[in-house]
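## Example record

The block below lists the input lines for one assembly entry, exactly as stored, with component labels intact.
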Amino acid sequence: MDKKKLAKQLGVIALVIVLFAGLDIGIYRLFIKRVISHHSPGMQKMSVEVGNYVPFTGSENVFSVKDADKLEGDIPTIDGAAALLPIYAGFVESIYPESSVIYNGEDYDPASAMHYTNTRGAYKDIVDGNADIIICAAPSDEQLQYAKDNGVELELVPVGSDAFVFIVNAGNPVDNITIDQIRGIYSGKITNWKELGGKNIPIAAMRRNKNSGSQTALEKIMGDIPIKPDYTALFGSPIGFSFRYYVTGMLGEGGVKILTINGIEPTPETIADGSYPVAGNIYAVYRKGETNENVKKAIDFMLSPEGQKIVEQSGYIPLSQ
Amino acid sequence: MKDKTFIAILAIIMVIGTGVTAGLMIHGYNLWKEISIVEMIANWG
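Predicted structure tokens for the full assembly:
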């Protein structure tokens, strides 16, 4: 009797241990293994590290014009999208006084004329008056509404362009996708890679935060079609999206590949001639009615041949192409 | 095994198990906040 009871008790103990072990292994395999960074810290902020793009530090990643006229007087505060930091770091190094940029080794000082947040933060900052120029992709409807609600009208001046790209794991055999298939995936109508000629694995359709530059770009592709949450995401093979420059820096490290869209690869040529179907403008955004003359001077520089050369050297597509 | 001993062992295992699971979740959440979508896809074979 006692032996039976003991066996039962040991069985319960073993069962509880096995259940916890199974749960923890599942958490590791489905979640933690996928979020371990094999790169540098702070990768969420961007594929390029902020410390590598600080103006006036002699960084080889910042392309600037040495003999451009420097701004004087009321220096406009500039901010922008994470993925576009190389561009505005180059603009700043070219025309801002060195003393106007204060970097403390980890982030920009609040008193610095250059800040670095992200698309969401930058659009809020330009409306709230905490930035005078931001370099970003097109705003979301919500960001435009926020500006309207605060009585601010935004002027958007295109200063370059880049492709919006869809990425998959390098082991995924699918190489191409169509716009209709993208809409099918993110509306929940296409749920398995076999429908795209791939393996019989669910599609894990990854999304970004609302009002991020790339999520806004996806919403523009989707048009009126609602984006549905993907409840099978944990168990599938992923598809995600970003801007070309943001991804290309990572491609050399392996692990991901960019899909062609309608058979077109996103190259500087296909983006510039419009054959790649989802290219988007990069804008210099400022408040309409801005009285600081330096804002106009800075934007004029961005549109000049020297400014456009910075756009190109930084890895994006200049207007002139 | 006495019932009290059994319950005590079970309680210790539950506490340790819950602690490890919670720790894993917190650790994963902290990693998730730092990782880019590109890296996550690269890890997600």
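Chain A is about 35% helix and 15% strand. Confidence is low (pLDDT under 50) at residues 40-47 of chain A.
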